[in-house]
């Protein structure tokens, strides 16, 4: 019988926010699959590694080529159930057995830093996605959190929204959990004119009336 492939949530970034259960699965794995930064943080010398990049079919084939008795762990940032590779792998390798090991998402971390509740917050990810309905998404709740990425930088998002809601208070968390973490408040209008590099950011917009 094939062993379950473990989809391991590694947390928001810094390894100190990785749970003991996740660490155990990572250390027991013979094969680690994940983004380059995650493999640099977690891989051990004896482990066979596969980097997840844009060639996702190659990752699927790599998994299928492994012996059934291999301990395989797929590293995902945050939590496996929150905009991760977990859904992609389960859908395309549905005949295999999986085990999801939860982690702390960047959104959980962000709201802990804000000291704000998040049970009623609307969440959206713009990683590799179109955003034709961005204005409708953002205006759909009192507080909206966005995972930024790719062409959708915080500034690009702000420019799309500024004409309609430029005065909206906005929090930006950059490099969350890392030593160079930054957390600050601005408005969509001000952010639209900002030219700093805010890669790897979580954005929270408050639709205050």
Descriptive report:
Helix content is about 30%, strand content about 25%. The protein has about 210 residues and is of the alpha/beta class. It has two domains: about 5-105, Tetrapyrrole methylase, N-terminal domain (Cobalt-precorrin-4 Transmethylase, domain 1, 3-Layer(aba) Sandwich); about 105-205, Tetrapyrrole methylase, C-terminal domain (Methyltransferase, Cobalt-precorrin-4 Transmethylase, Domain 2, 2-Layer Sandwich). The longest helix is centred in the last third of the chain and has 12 residues, at about 155-165. The model has no long low-confidence stretch (mean pLDDT about 90).
Features:
single chain, 209 residues, 31% helix, 2 domains, five-stranded parallel β-sheet, Cobalt-precorrin-4 Transmethylase, domain 1, 8 helices, Methyltransferase, Cobalt-precorrin-4 Transmethylase, Domain 2
Unreliable spans are none
CATH fold-level assignment of the largest domain: Cobalt-precorrin-4 Transmethylase, domain 1
User: Helical segment tally?
Assistant: 8
Task: Name the CATH homologous superfamily of the largest domain.
Answer: Tetrapyrrole methylase, N-terminal domain
